[in-house]
What does this fold into?
Amino acid sequence: MSLTLPPLPYSPEALEPHVDAQTMTIHHGKHHAAYVTNANKALEGTPFADWSAEKLCQQLSVLPDDKRSAVRNNAGGHWNHSLFWLLMAPAGQGGGGAPSGALGAAIVSAFGSFDAFKEKFAATGVGRFGSGWAWLVSNNGKLEVCSTANQDNPLMGKAVAGCEGTPILAVDVWEHAYYLKYQNRRADYLAAWWNVVNWGKAAELFGR
It folds into this structure.
């Protein structure tokens, strides 16, 4: 079965004013859709055409040389965005606030405080040169913050992506994720993004 574009779990305007509706519409309906289309095109007629995006990211090394780059970029983009939409929710409807329970305790244990984690995570996103992502991952049971370039993700492993582990939280710092509203102010976008973080979803991923 070929890869498919998942629907947004909320309306495009639901994350206003922190993430604007026009950005969400273009980001999902054009950018994410293009990753799906291009990944399927690259995989068409190959034994890998029915693989999930997760499996493709985890097993890039087995793909033919002439397919690997296209799959890395596009299946990676599809997997990253499919997770990203779920890790946001409207403010006051599950978005924003602070993590509680086991995830909240683990963040405090790993980083000293929630505020210290936020500072480190935001700095990682701001410091990613060019396009990419910032991640909170569980790596051998330890929470770590890291970043990847372009559409790489921690599933691809440290040798490929420079970051490894099970993703718990992710933020897109490509310019298309924020430029219409924030222009070159990536730090302002990341500061606003905390208002729509879906900690319930992040806690679910941590619990697994």
